[in-house]
Fold these 4 entries.
Entry 1:
Amino acid sequence: MIAAATEFQPGSAAELLALCAGEWMCLRSKYTPAGGDEDWQQSERADLQWSWLASTEPDQLGTLQFQAKGETPQKLQFFSDGKLQTAAGDQASWQLRAGQLELSQQIGAQRLEETISFSKPNLRLRNVLIWHGDQLIAAQFCSEIRRVSRSVA
């Protein structure tokens, strides 16, 4: 039932980004339309660490940092006007639509679009589409489960 999957919706982009903080187990499938009968090129599992640092500046939401184990951390700085910037200085944009955070970045002739949503506070879904002009050249789907500690009784 689709309605049940969308019942949990953060009320703001800052709330959604704050929910991203934590340790996540990610199951990712990569798809390449040009692959013929074997379009699903790869499925993999990863452990990701995400953190959110809210800003006290009125023109900024804050900084989201994420890192796969053994890799260099990546940072995205979110601004209140719908823009974001990577640590390398690359520019992109974001918008919150129907409880989903949509990120978009143009890199030469390619456009990357990512959607982040939550079905539940500990279940996050991410979709990435890579376009060359109006042609889809790659896609990823990630289902991510937050790692939580068992409380000691």
Entry 2:
Amino acid sequence: MATFNDVWKIGMGLPEVEETTFYGTAGLKVKGKAFCRIWSEREYERDEITDTEVLVIFCELDEKETLIEQYDGVLFSTPHYDGSDNLLVRLTDATAEQLTDFLDISYLIKAPPSLIKIQSPSANASVPLLVPPSIKFNSVVVTVAPSSISNCA
């Protein structure tokens, strides 16, 4: 069972992350771009969810339904988020590994290209690449689209 404290610990370990508040709730941002936040009291009431903390993250819109299906109950959406690039995480049901993966994806979507580094396959050195990385969530591969990266610079 994860909490926002776990989100904070994982997220603050990523480069250039700062604490922030938006929509009246605690969140994290990278270079001024929010990449996750906890739900507000109004949202819990609106969607009648009382059994878990809910984290809002970002995803590629075309991957949203696949991720929801893959994570059977951990990731979800509500009518308010239909058509948006936001996913909701039931923190009560998320493992630390899943939470790390979810935060990595959201971070990569919002981080400027200068912060996105991946391991070079030919040399054992980190090389900054300005190409969209793919991240594997269990058996689902999610690719961060170039348009998402360029919009965040």
Entry 3:
Amino acid sequence: MADNQNIGINIGTCLFVAAAAPATYDKAGFDALTWIEVGEVTDFGEVGGERSVSTHIPVKTGEVNKRGGSIDYGQMAVTYGKDLTDVGQIALDAAVTANTTHSVKILDADGVNYEAFTTIVTSFKTARGDASAIIGGTSNFDITAKPTYFSVA
């Protein structure tokens, strides 16, 4: 079996947040934002769209007719080691209170590609766990526009 060099691991991947939506939803728009890195991220969760399926069942036939419905770009739950001095985590906490659209950038470990999207930050929680656990946190992002990949260069 061949080793696929096109896949990678997350070591070195970074999360950034900006307190605004881009003026345009392209590379130039996202690059123009002021980004703050969120420190101590341990899990990025999932990002991507999911299409609903609309159905229609005529009584005469009882057959289910299906059509592709709307696309929901979902939610992303990010976990991190809680650091009360981390400016990125402070920004996430402020984002929940602000209740405005923010932008997110996930810079791949290669430092070449990033994924960007707009979101509403819906939570900033502390997770204490058991006696041996690192005090952590979770922030949930409700994604408002299709995540898009860009190249840094």
Entry 4:
Amino acid sequence: MKKIYFYLLALFTFQVHAQTYTHTETFDNAVFDSSSNNSWGSYGFTSPNGPVFYYEMARNASPNYPISGKGIHLRYSQASFIEITFPDGLKDIYFEYRKASAESYREKNIEVLLVANDNSTTLLGVTPTFGATNTLDATVHNFSITDINRVGS
């Protein structure tokens, strides 16, 4: 199975083109602490069509920082990530992201890593720097990586 890791302090929605279908994630099935949308934690869910999501040091981005409805808010780059397993492989990936809070004014990037079945890691891409202001910035950025062309397990 192919895993894609996102390391970021941002919110995002994404669309992937698997080998045989296109999957747009809405995060309607995303799982968070039901007692509070403000609890940072480790969560996961299986999306329709098979991608499996696991996210660490994350919380629900909705309703405070959504991009298009729902999203995942990651806390900080040292410990926060989203891991996605694509059992049918991965051809292309596209996602939207934005600064999630006015409290952080450090520059940010998102690294997209591919971890193969043998645990070897390949850096697929890095977003341009964003978020270096001490104000809330609702600008939605887009990032895509094409021609990944990895088959599933």
